[in-house]
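Project standup — Tuesday

K.O.: blocked on the structure for the chain from last sprint. Re-posting the sequence here as requested.
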Amino acid sequence: MVAVRFALAFSVLLGACPWAFAQTREEKVRNDKKEIEAEGRWIYNDFAAARDEARRSGKPILAVLRCIPCEECVKLDEEVIRQDPLIKKHLDSFVRVRLVSTNGLDLSIFQFDTDQSFAVFFLEADGTVLGRFGTRSHRTDWRGDVSVEGLARAMEKALALHAGYPGNQATLKAKTGPKPAYPSPEKMPPLAGKFGPQLDYQGNVVKSCIHCHQIGDAARELALKQSGPLDDRTLFPFPHPKSIGLTLDPAHCATVLAVEDSSPAAKAGLKPGDNLATLQGQPLLSIADVQWVLNAASPEGASIQGTVSRDGRESPFTLDLPKGWRHRDDFAWRASTWGLRRAALGGIFFKPGTGANQGKLVIEHVGAFAPHDVAKRAGFQKGDVLVSWDGKADFTRETDLICHMLQTRAGNREPVRVTIQRDGVEKELKLATNR
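H.V.: unblocked you, prediction finished:
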């Protein structure tokens, strides 16, 4: 969920949070609201009010999406962020709003990678997106993707874009995506009737919250109800720049740190130290803006036009993405992958093997309860080493295994033959997936 682990790192790096672990989860949620509203520096969970204030003040909006405090996390404390001088000097230039749930969230504006750990939107009062900040490429570790320094620089660039608005409106148009199928999360069929458009502070506020990852969960659940193969957009949302051979510097605005040999990025002529100024005409504030452009690119192949700043000069470049390019990405870390594991693997969670099992997949967990218990009932156990799956013995990533089942094998109802090794002995099992 948004901001859980990024929040913890902020608190460790920038100062200790006053955090009463003796409180119940409900108390933490309610006290968080009380404290932020009493302080008065942030609008709390009310985007409409932030837009009204932005219209009155002429300031851009800084919208931070984070989870409401829970037992498992330390909140992203705005007092901690303000104490960092890089952030503090820019905060008063924005209308600041904390969105602590996605109930009622306007999905025509807030389109982002819902599995990431920290999300920021820079917006005009009319809803125009100036840029995005935040990403994630690992279940727990964000350090290679985002930083306080990077956020500060994104804030600076957002303010510069705001100063040029509406003269630069045409270059910002593509930062807003197409009209969504459902206007807000609680309207999505898997969530409808279970949640309302607002948090229920009169009842159990914790249970009333729609978490960010539940938007992705719902979208994948809808896709899984279809009979055909899942498309690459569904399986590989918001591809990480590493999928095209780019490692970006988390402390700067879309600045190249490393380029993988023979990758699309290398073939485009990109080099370490390059600042990606634009992609498809869009100004870039961060890695999240790069992912936004990649997310819009066709899985069947695309040519992305960009400009790069190098040695004080801007030059054009073309990034050619071949058919199937998204498969270089890895989605196994995503919270939303649990639904895919249920449909494709019968509830198995694989992890890469180590030691003697290096290069192999090893079962880390087998679902114990329906509908995630199909593999358990078929005889699979934690610690089983994958030898072959559906006649293929070259699966080294869980992502590729899931793709095989949901794309190549879609519609095939025959049980899958799986060979595993357990206690040094090979054993063949049959798995009837329950998509």
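K.O.: great, moving the ticket to review. The domain at 338-431 is CATH 2.30.42.10 (Pdz3 Domain). The chain is about 30% helix and 20% strand.
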